[in-house]
Specification:
alpha/beta; Aspartate Aminotransferase, domain 2; Aspartate Aminotransferase, domain 1; 2 domains; 7-stranded mixed beta sheet; 3-stranded antiparallel beta sheet; globular; binds pyridoxal-5'-phosphate
Length: 370
C-alpha cells in the first residue's frame, strides 16, 4: 500500500533500520553526541538561530509557542482545522485572542492582518500556518510577518510550518517561531515536535519562563547543552538525525525543487483529466482536489490500486481529497498515484481512460524545466 496522505508520511527503510537499534540512555555522552548532531542539522534546515525538540505531536509545539510567547493577546488566522486550533489553544489557556476567519480555500491577506493590528494595539502575537493542511493552501506568511513587524516591531510571529518546513524554502527574516513535526516532511513516526527560534525569540525566552512541561526557557537552556529537561524521544531524535543526513546528501534545495516539481506535475495531470484544485493558492506540500465523490474514489484507490490518500474534515468531509508531496518520494510512486486516480475515475464511469494523467505527469516532471 502506498501511503500518500499529507501526514503521516511513510518511514523509509534505512531510517526504520536506524531506529531499530537497542535503546540507549538519554543522559549519556553517546546520546548527547547524537543530539548535538541532530540539532546542528535542524538549525540548517530551519535557517534559524536556535531549535528546540520536544516529545509531543505537532500540536504540543503550537501550544508551547502560544503559552511561552503570548503575554497579552494573540491574533489567530483560521482558514482551516489547524488555524482554528491556535484559537482553541488560546481558549484553553485563558489567553485573549482575535481570530481572522476565512474559507478553507482562501489564504489570509496582509491587509486584514494590518487592519487587525491597527485596531487592536494590545495584540502581541500572530499565530498562522505557513501551509494550512485542512485545504492545502499557502498563506502569504512572509509578507504578513513583514507587514506586522512594520506596525509593531516586537510582535511575535508564530508560524506553524508543519507542512512547509522541509518542503519549500521559507523566508524566516520576520518569523520568530517556526514549528514543525516529525510525521510530515521529515518522514518519521509521529511523536517529535520541533521549534525554530530567531534571535529575538531566544532573547525573550532567556528573560522569563512560563509553563512546566512546555517551559521553553528551561528546554532551551538544556538543549544548548545537548540534553533535554525530561526524557528525550531518543529513538525519534536518532531517526531525525539519520533523515536530515539523507536530506543533506541530496541537498535541501534539490529536495525543495523535487517537491515543487512533483506538486506541479500532479496538479497539472489531475487538471488535465477534468479535476479542479481546491485552494486558490496551493502549497507545494500537497495537492487538494475538490471532488464530490471523494470518499468513493478514495475507497477504490485503496482497495483496487493500493494507494492511500487523505480526505477532508468537518464540512469538507467527502468533498475533497489530498495527495501528499512531502518528503523523499520516488517519482514512479507519484506517477502511479495520478495514474490510479485516472483508472478509478473510469471505474466510476466519470471519464474514459486514455492515459492522459500519466502522460502529463511525465511531460512536466521529466520533459520540461519547471
Ligand atoms: C499535522 C499538522 C499539525 C500537527 O498535528 P498533530 O496531530 O498534533 O501532529 C499542525 N499543523 C499543521 C498545519 C499540520 O498539518
Amino acid at each position: 500500500m502506498l501511503l500518500f496522505t499529507p501526514g503521516p508520511t511513510p518511514v523509509l527503510e534505512d531510517i526504520r533500520f536506524a531506529m531499530s537499534q537497542p535503546t540507549i540512555h538519554h543522559r549519556t555522552p553517546e546520546f548527547e553526541a547524537i543530539f548535538a548532531n541532530t540539532r546542528k542539522k535542524l538549525k540548517d534546515i530551519f535557517q534559524m538561530e536556535e531549535v528546540i525538540m520536544i516529545a509531543s505531536s505537532g500540536t504540543g509545539a503550537m501550544e508551547a509557542a502560544v503559552i511561552n510567547f503570548c503575554q497579552t493577546k494573540a491574533l489567530t488566522v483560521n482558514a482551516g482545522k489547524f488555524g482554528e486550533r491556535f484559537g482553541k489553544i488560546c481558549q484553553a489557556q485563558n489567553i485573549p485572542y482575535t481570530e481572522l476567519k476565512y474559507e478553507w480555500n482562501t489564504p489570509a491577506t496582509v491587509e486584514d492582518v494590518v487592519n487587525a493590528l491597527e485596531n487592536e494595539r494590545d495584540i502581541d502575537t500572530i499565530c498562522i500556518q505557513v501551509c494550512e493542511s485542512a485545504g492545502g493552501l499557502r498563506h502569504p506568511v512572509e509578507a504578513i510577518a513583514k507587514a506586522a513587524k512594520a506596525i509593531k516591531n516586537d510582535i511575535v510571529v508564530i508560524a506553524d510550518g508543519i507542512t512547509a518546513v522541509g518542503v519549500e524554502p521559507i523566508d524566516t527574516s520576520n518569523i520568530d517561531v517556526l514549528i514543525s513535526g516529525s510525521q510530515k516532511a521529515f518522514m518519521l513516526p509521529p511523536g517529535l515536535a520541533m521549534l525554530g527560534l530567531n534571535a529575538d525569540a531566544v532573547l525573550k525566552l532567556e528573560s522569563y519562563e512560563k509553563g512546566y512541561y512546555l517551559n521553553l526557557h528551561t528546554e532551551l537552556k538544556k538543549q544548548r547543552n545537548n540534553t533535554t529537561a525530561y526524557t528525550a524521544a531518543t529513538t525519534l531524535v536518532i531517526g531525525l538525525g539519520a533523515m536530515l543526513e539523507k536530506i543533506e546528501k541530496l541537498g535541501k534545495d534539490q529536495l525543495y525543487h523535487d517537491s515543487a516539481k512533483r506538486a506541479e506535475a500532479t496538479k497539472k495531470a489531475l487538471e488535465a483529466i477534468g479535476l479542479s484544485v481546491y485552494p486558490t493558492v496551493p502549497a507545494p506540500s500537497m495537492t487538494t482536489i475538490a471532488f464530490d465523490k471523494a470518499d468513493e474514489l478514495r475507497k477504490i484507490l485503496k482497495t483496487k490500486y493500493t494507494v492511500n490518500i487523505a480526505g477532508g474534515q468537518d464540512h469538507l468531509k467527502g468533498k475533497i481529497f489530498r495527495i501528499n508531496h512531502m518528503g523523499l518520494i520516488e517519482t514512479y510512486e507519484a506517477a502511479w498515484v495520478v495514474n490510479a486516480i485516472e483508472l478509478a475515475l473510469a471505474d466510476m464511469g466519470i471519464r474514459t481512460f486514455d492515459g492522459k494523467a500519466n502522460q502529463i505527469f511525465n511531460d512536466i516532471y521529466f520533459r520540461t524545466n519547471v
